[in-house]
Amino acid sequence: MDWLEEELTQALARKEPGPGFESRVRARLARRPQWLPIAAALLMLVGASEAWQQYRGYQAKEQVMAAMRIAGGKLNRVQAKISGGAQ
Amino acid sequence: MVPGGPGQIASNATVISLTAARQALDFDELMREHRAMVFSVLWHFLHDRDLAEELAQDVFLSLHKNMGAIDSPAHAGHWLRKVAVQRAIDAGRRRLRRPQVSLEEVREPFVRPPSADPMLGDMLRRLIATLPEGPRMAMVLRYQEDLDPAEIAETMGIPLGTVKSHIARSVAMLREKLERRGVGER
Predict the structure, then answer these.
(1) Which of A4, A9, A14 sits opposite B37 (nearest CB)?
(2) How does residue B99 score in pLDDT terms, banded at 50, 70 and 90?
């Protein structure tokens, strides 16, 4: 190793970060998980809202189908009476 | 595999030894052992102490998240060096303060030629900070981390020939600039 390489090794020797580095990393680690439960709760709320909307849609569809079945049955009876009277 | 046979016993022993190795990995201990390496890679590359400290913290947060994938202290050191190199390069690109220049275009520092070694060290760090991204990181890994060119190529993910060329040309450029100013004639 010549003089320049020796100087480079000294110039680029490892340096320590500022005092309290580990504490600062630990503090950031402690702060970070607070977002996880909030994000999870938000996701659950969105999911539950979506499921509730689907359930309401299904109920409305069922009610329309029931109304159509009732109306259809009545129409059939009226048609049967008209057909009987004509004969 | 026969239950209780030699194969299973060997397999259990491997599992136990791997588990023991993982348990032996203490995050705080890894931080103490590798903080100077991670911080220095970032600082020597970026020449910005605050940014280097912030990114060094990011590197250790990332290690904490990935502790499950780390098998041994040696693996942790290797992993940390690679992540620090990548973060440094990414930050350098984001910063875009300094346009990429070729080695021939690197300006000489405005400081007077140093007469004492501490000043020479400062001058060298400033000169290295003006190098383009690839040669700069290769020089940091060569002279800070004492890695050989093959290890540098693996860490940076570039061909071995490119690493050798980066180092040879950078050292020649530094030598020429220093000797032109009468530094290093020993």
Answers:
(1) A14
(2) low
Determine contact, residues A38/B62, Cβ cutoff 8 Å: no
Alpha helix locations (H) across A1-34? 3-11, 21-31
ipTM, interface predicted TM-score of the complex: 0.74
Torsion from C-alpha of B152, B156, B157, B162, nearest 10 degrees: -60
Q: Enumerate the domain spans of chain A.
A: 21-86
CB B178 within 8 A of CB A5: no
B39–A15 CB contact, under 8 Å: yes
In 3D, which of B108, B80, B81, B174 has the Cα closest to residue B135?
Answer: B174
Query: What are the CA-CA distances from residue B69 to residues B17, B38, B136 (Å)?
Result: 15, 19, 30
Domains of chain B in sequence order: 25-95 (1.10.1740), 105-180 (1.10.10.10)
Q: Which of A6-10, B112-116, B137-141 has the lowest mean pLDDT?
A: B112-116
A25 touches chain B (CB under 8 A): yes
Q: Give the up-direction half-sphere exposure of residue B156: CA atoms within 13 A in the CB hemisphere.
A: 28
Q: What is the pLDDT of residues A48-62, one digit of tens each?
A: 999 999 999 999 999
Residue with tokens 């000043």: B119
